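STRUCTURE REQUEST FORM
Protein name: Pre-mRNA-splicing factor SPF27
Source organism: Crepidotus variabilis
Requested output: structure tokens
Priority: standard
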Amino acid sequence: MATADGFELFESLPYYDDDLQKYPHLDALVDKELSREPKAPQTLHPSLPALIELFGDSPLLKTELERVAANKTFPALDTLRYSLPAPAAPATAEEWQNAIDNARAQLQHQRIRQQNLALLQTYGSNAWRIQNYLLESTAQQTEKSLEELKELTVEVNRQRKNSQDQYGKQLTALETRWTELISSVLQIEMANVALDAEIERLNKKEADLAGL
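Status: completed
Returned output:
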């Protein structure tokens, strides 16, 4: 039920009402009524933040994320670029020059790898420990926030149940009182009808006696 200010008010006490248990046939009526309800919107509520696009500025990482999400196997490494094929005989000077350039590129690549391995051996362990510490701290904060939300949810549900039990008992007492009052009114009306009939009978009897 919508109020004048647009606020949705649901007249229901799910923690207290037991009509569905008392009257099982109401389940079919509830299902029929729910089938008439409009489908839930597919878009998020405006108050929710927009979805975060991971690795939007890195197509390589985005493609890798999509591969993992699709459970696809990792493609085999291309080792051809690391080989040093000699030109087939007879080879021209240009082909030999290309082979030499390739060998120099492979040599430079191995030098860079050695430098990276040396840097990793020197500083990698500390950087790894710091990263692990940060990740553990973030995980602990997230778990703490999750536990707080769970406790808050339990507390909200507990308060709802207590308030609904309280209001439900008041409603039951008022409904019982209303039934008693209606019964009293009906008894009074029945007594009035009987009294009117008795008065009419006495009036008629009086008229008959006056006629005699």
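Reviewer notes: The mean pLDDT is 86. The CA atoms of residues 52 and 149 lie 22 Å apart.
Form closed.
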